[in-house]
Specification:
This protein is an all-alpha fold. It contains 13 helices and four strands. Helices cover 48% and strands 3% of the residues. It has a two-stranded antiparallel ribbon with strand order 1-2. The protein has a two-stranded antiparallel ribbon with strand order 3-4. Strand 1 and strand 2 (86-87) form a beta hairpin. Helix 11 (302-323) runs antiparallel to helix 13.
């Protein structure tokens, strides 16, 4: 073979290799077998005639630098944005209308990224940096947002039913219209167990799993507190009130006698005197918290206090009538007279024509006066609390 033939063979081999590299990436499964780079993604978008409908499901984008890239309408599916130790850089990227169902965005940088109406169902945003990201109307149901940094993020009307918001940072986040469902994930034991099976069954030791399940109401308390503060920062007082009530209900659940030991074990493991006082302390706390909810909805429901005032005003006339110890200077006592006497006692005004003569009637009068003073004071406090934040 002459040197010319040899040269021609080399040229042909180089041309064949170049043509293979220039073949569209979509025509092979190579992009599903190796991590894609920014250039790979841009090339695929160009070959697709735009990002709309581009299928990157189950692709490996771990560690990719996709900053400020428009990925509108891309189908990511179970795409993996995470490699060992760090995630992809998606700062300022646009995912409007994109399908990110079950995508792995753990530890990724999502700052200023746009997810308007994106589908993030069951996606993992564990410890993701999502400050100032836009999740308006995004579907985040059953997503894992544990430890996600959402400071300043826009969650306008986002769907977060059964999403895990434990330790998520919501400072200054816009949470207007956020849909959380009737309960948080942590408030339903069966759903929380399923969550652990779905995300951590293989990696989390059984003892840590049991600990998280036992402390789920503590996590719920922290989530509601963060939501309350986020609502207040944007003047959403009605939603903040609801979050505060749920926060108190979750905290009350931790004080229940059958749960207190799991939530306040540090006190239980201290001195003998603390152990002796432990259960009475949290039982009394649980009862008082329950009464605060029953009487005034933790200071957020004045109508509940009005209702209890009405119950007192209707019950005591009957008790006075049964005791037979209240007399009227004008003659026989009627039901209206008993009602007037009860009203005067409740408001501590008193009527001179009525008199409690028997010890039982006098005790009932003192009890109603005490209840009246307490109820009216509670009503004024609750009304003032609501008016100041309306």
């Amino acid at each position: 073979m002459s040197w010319l033939d040899l040269l021609q063979t080399v040229i042909d081999n180089l041309r064949d290799g170049f043509e293979r590299r220039e073949q569209p990436i979509q025509n092979s499964n190579d992009h599903r077998m190796r991590p894609l780079t920014r250039d790979d993604v841009i090339k695929m978008i160009q070959q697709n005639g735009g990002s709309e409908g581009l299928d990157l499901s189950k692709c490996d984008l771990s560690g990719a630098d996709l900053r400020n890239l428009s990925l509108r309408g891309v189908i990511f599916g179970r795409c993996d944005f995470v490699t060992t130790g760090y995630g992809a850089n998606l700062v300022g990227a646009t995912f409007t209308d994109s399908d990110l169902t079950r995508a792995n965005l753990t530890h990724t940088n999502l700052q200023d990224a746009g997810f308007w109406e994106a589908n993030l169902y069951e996606a993992s945003l564990f410890a993701a940096q999502a400050q100032n990201a836009h999740f308006g109307r995004a579907d985040l149901r059953r997503a894992d947002l544990y430890g996600c940094q959402l400071g300043g993020a826009n969650l306008w009307y986002a769907r977060l039913e059964e999403a895990n918001l434990a330790t998520a940072r919501l400072a200054d986040a816009l949470v207007t219209g956020v849909q959380l469902g009737d309960f948080l994930l942590q408030e339903k034991q069966k759903d929380y167990e399923e969550y652990f099976e779905r995300w951590y069954a293989r990696d989390l030791p059984a003892k840590y799993r049991e600990r998280h399940l036992k402390l789920r109401y503590h996590e719920a308390t922290e989530i509601y507190m963060n939501l309350k503060n986020a609502y207040l920062s944007h003047g959403r007082y009605k939603e903040a009130s609801r979050a505060y009530i749920n926060e108190r209900l979750s905290r009350r659940a931790t004080c229940a006698p059958w749960r207190a030991k799991a939530y306040y074990s540090t006190e239980w493991n201290s001195s003998i005197l603390r152990k002796l006082w432990f259960y009475p302390k949290y039982f009394v706390t649980w009862i008082l918290d329950w009464l605060a909810d029953l009487l005034c909805g933790y200071g957020e429901k004045p109508l509940r206090t009005v209702l209890w005032a009405g119950v007192i005003l209707l019950a005591f006339p009957l008790l006075f009538a049964l005791s037979g110890g209240v007399v009227s200077r004008s003659g026989q006592m009627t039901w209206l007279d008993y009602l007037n006497y009860s009203l005067g006692t409740f408001t501590t005004i008193g009527f001179s024509q009525f008199e409690a003569q028997t010890p039982l009637a006098q005790v009932l009068t003192s009890i109603e006066a005490l209840l009246g003073i307490s109820t009216l004071a509670l009503l004024m406090f609750t009304l003032g609390n609501r008016i100041s934040r309306s």
